[in-house]
Amino acid sequence: MHRRHFLRSAGVALAAASTASWAATDKALAIPRTALPVTPPGASPAPFAAMPPLAPMHASIDRIIAINGCTRPFRAQGPRIEAERIGRKTVVHNYGHGGSGWSLSWGAAEHD
């Protein structure tokens, strides 16, 4: 489903629900049934229904590096944006934005 189609359909449904009491008394306000979205016969109602399943994940306790739950670290000296080699792995540090982490992460990822 495309975003515009979804928003248009949601707007029509909201308008129909909010004017239901008016439509009962005034037929001029009723929204015709043909204006509501209809899924064609044989079509999937959700665009993601036909996606293949995800590959199985081989999870085990010994693969856990750290457990962090909903932390929003703030650093007075500013966010930490740097790469570090630990063994054969490269770890990229991009934290310290505080409560603005999600909105600032895109620009921070472009930072050299």
UniProtKB/TrEMBL annotation:
PROSITE patterns: DAO, TAT. InterPro entries: D-amino_acid_oxidase_CS, DAO, TAT_signal. One of its GO terms (cellular component) is cytoplasm. Keywords: FAD, Flavoprotein, Oxidoreductase, Signal. Its cofactor is FAD. GO terms for molecular function: D-amino-acid oxidase activity; FAD binding. Residues 1-23 form the signal peptide. One of its GO terms (biological process) is D-amino acid catabolic process. This is D-amino acid oxidase. It comes from Xanthomonas vasicola pv. vasculorum NCPPB 890.
